[in-house]
Amino acid sequence: MNIEGKVVIITGGMGGMGYETAKALLKNGAKFIAIFDLPGSADEIDSSSKGLFATERAKFFPGDISIDSTLKNNFDRVVNDQGCVDIVINNAGIINEQNIQLLVDLNVKAVLSCSLLALTHMGKHKGGHGGLIVNVNAILGLTDCPLLPFYSATKHAIIGFTRCMKNNFNSTGVRVVSICPGVTKTNLFRKLPENLCDFISDTIKEKVLTEVPVQSDSSGTSAYKREPISNLDAQYDSSKREPKHTYNE
Ligand SMILES: NC(=O)c1ccc[n+]([C@@H]2O[C@H](COP(=O)([O-])OP(=O)(O)OC[C@H]3O[C@@H](n4cnc5c(N)ncnc54)[C@H](O)[C@@H]3O)[C@@H](O)[C@H]2O)c1
């Protein structure tokens, strides 16, 4: 799929990688980017980056996407305003090993709910013209990490969903893919130490937090920059077991 002229919804698009992704998609010719994020999240964007909203091609839709009615309202508003949606990027995610409800509501439920809305709107089985759903996952959705067992479980769940959707493409015309970044310097990463479980040993903390390579938030979106979005499924194809990772080593 060529992103030129496409209408894109991105959740968590005010945050580290989401914001970089929105900028990259606009630069690469997307017609319109709808950013779904929490009210107040725009305040965290520094003024030098506010250029994204100087264009009519991007709009902020404030709301908590883990609330189904809020998510649907904003999704419907984009469809009504733009006439269609072509690409949905499920990017919003948190690490909170102490609040399972919050974690699952956002990292799993909101991704599945938003995907269902996207499939219902874009799916050829519903008269739509097909499209693309990108689930922003993590290496931790593919491997095990003793530092973050609950977060990892949510990411594994979405890898499972992505894999299951592979063979529904013929019916829906909607490709469902995941990208799996490594550790990236964003707020999510910066707040990590305060969001861990109390049973995590210092040895594990030290090992993971000091030994794992870390990349910048903009390199976390390199999948979108280096390749046209049509090739995103080459970044992580659910049928292959060897995703590409990008690190600043
Ligand atoms: N940073 C990393 O190391 C890393 C690594 C691999 C994968 N990821 C994944 O990448 C995605 C983006 O992460 P990031 O590091 O850019 O995080 P971030 O914290 O910088 O940004 C996340 C955004 O999601 C928004 N958000 C949180 N709760 C929300 C809600 N209920 N409704 C709407 N928006 C909400 C936040 O306001 C924020 O703007 C996440 O899914 C994360 O799991 C991150």
Task: Characterize the structure shown.
This protein has 249 residues and is α/β, with parallel strands linked by helices. It has helices at residues 16-27, 68-82, 100-122, 149-165, 169-172, 187-190, 202-211, 222-226, 232-235, and strands spanning 7-11, 32-37, 58-62, 87-90, 131-136, 174-179, 184-185, 215-216. The strands form two sheets. It has a six-stranded parallel sheet with strand order 3-2-1-4-5-6, sandwiched between helices. Strands 7-8 form a two-stranded parallel sheet. Helix 1 (16-27) links the parallel strand 1 and strand 2 (32-37). The structure holds nicotinamide-adenine-dinucleotide. Nicotinamide-adenine-dinucleotide is lined by residues 11-12, 14-18, 36-38, 41, 64-66, 91-94, 106, 136, 138, 181, 183-184, 186-189. Nicotinamide-adenine-dinucleotide binds next to helix 1, strand 2 and helix 6. Belongs to the short-chain dehydrogenases/reductases (SDR) family.
- Tally the beta strands: 8
Q: How would you sum up the global shape?
A: globular
Q: Enumerate how many helices there are, as a single number.
A: 9
The major sheet is characterized as: 6 strands, parallel
| Overall pLDDT metric | 86
Strand % is 5-15%
Protein name: Alcohol dehydrogenase
Pfam families: adh_short
Region (Disordered): 215-249
GO molecular function: oxidoreductase activity
Task: Provide a concise account of the structure shown.
By secondary structure, the chain is of the alpha/beta class.
Topology:
Blueprint: E1 7-11, H1 16-27, E2 32-37, E3 58-62, H2 68-82, E4 87-90, H3 100-122, E5 131-136, H4 149-165, H5 169-172, E6 174-179, E7 184-185, H6 187-190, H7 202-211, E8 215-216, H8 222-226, H9 232-235
Helix pairs in contact: 2-3, 3-4
The structure holds nicotinamide-adenine-dinucleotide (NAD).
